[in-house]
Amino acid sequence: MNCTRRLFALVLLVFNLATFSLLSWTQTTEGPDPASTVAVGAQYDTTHVYVSPSDVDAFVASFLETFGGKSTKQVIATVTPTPSKATSQLLQTRVAAVRTHRDFTERSTLIV
Amino acid sequence: MRITRSFGVIAIAIFLSTGIARLFPMQRTALAVADAATVTPNVTVGPQYDTTHVYVAPEDFDTFVASLVATFGGTTSKQGVFTVTPTPSSTMSQLVLTPVGTLSVFGFKTPVPYPFGAERTGYLVTDFDAAVQAARTTGADVLVSPFNDPIGRDVIIQWPGGVNTQLYWHTTAPSYKPLQTIPENRVYVSTDRVAAFVDSFLAFSHGTVIADDAHAPGVEMGRPSDTYRRIRIQSNFGKLTVLVTDGHLPYPYGHEMTGYEVSDLAATLAKAKVAGVQVLVPPYTSDQRAAALVQFPGGYIAEIHSITGNRTDVEQIP
Lengths: 112, 318
What we know:
The complex is a heterodimer of chains A (112) and B (318). Chain A is an alpha/beta fold and 112 residues long. In chain A, 21% of the residues lie in helices and 21% in strands. Chain A has helices spanning 2-6, 13-18, 56-67; strands spanning 7-10, 46-48, 70-71, 75-77, 85-88, 90-93, 108-111. In chain A, a hairpin with a 7-residue loop joins strand 4 and strand 5. Chain B folds into two domains: 47-170, 2,3-Dihydroxybiphenyl 1,2-Dioxygenase, domain 1 (Roll); 184-315, Roll (2,3-Dihydroxybiphenyl 1,2-Dioxygenase, domain 1). In chain B, helix 1 (2-18) crosses helix 2 and helix 3 (61-72) packs antiparallel against helix 6 (265-274). Chains A and B meet through helix 1 of A and loops of B.
């Protein structure tokens, strides 16, 4: 029980940063003046999903099966300021945007 | 200093120009308006009617209730299955009346409608509508607007700082025995919101701050080499301890909602272990209190403590 609680599923921001090189910054240049906002772009919004370690693989598979996309390699990391351990991976799916005023597909990022 | 002086000059000028007879009625009106804005009716009933809300899986329900009674003693209400939310749902429900605190146990047979489960405690109030109004007036947010349950009415409010509380009222007023010891509601609040939380809660509960320690021992939140701010509040709702932290809390600190005061911690823990309770933080002593954190079957995490000497917080009453 204790072990289950201490090992949970989550994200590493470093993976998020690693994806910056894959995503063009020019995609956000139509937004507000970068100097006046801290917002970067919707593709960097990550929905945090906590599942039990025993469900992680099935969840990831079901999510990618549903929306397509890819996952970063799963790692085990400490993502809290106090001691804990979590499996962590980032899912990037290509969900066709409902609003199509831009000529690129918006990405929604999911972290598990 | 300058401002004070100019006020003095203005006051004298008003006094001279209007005279004492005209000045007094004006002051009275101003005071009356201020009172109406800040003072709300006292809707408290008593700490035995504070119920810590515990949500467990239906299959763990009976084991959990049995472990509570084995650990603390007391009695239970008859178990039933009810709808206790404003939208459709079905839950097992039972009240556990222990001498050290009351618990309301839920075992949902359906999914739990949002945001139920996030409320920590239920407080019985004397006048439901007045209480809802008082909560709003004193700065709380109404998260789930008033709704009926099979035996009364409910609302879920949120205090500044993100503390969710249910207020309830029964069509037939309940009557529970006074508690042997009053448990504490343990509320973790951020530095940014603590002032707003305390102001709001004090105004609503008609309570008082009985201790405010800016450098309480960090061992009480699992960080022995640090300190944190601890505020103890007393009202007719019972005790409430505010733990003001940076949120860097080692597990399981912050998960415990209630701290139960028992006469003999070691004896209580011995009974608890037999009942399947797991000790998460073994007993330690701080602020004239021997305390431990435990987890009951079904997942409920609680603090249990006994008093080991003269309490510094009692001596600090202003």
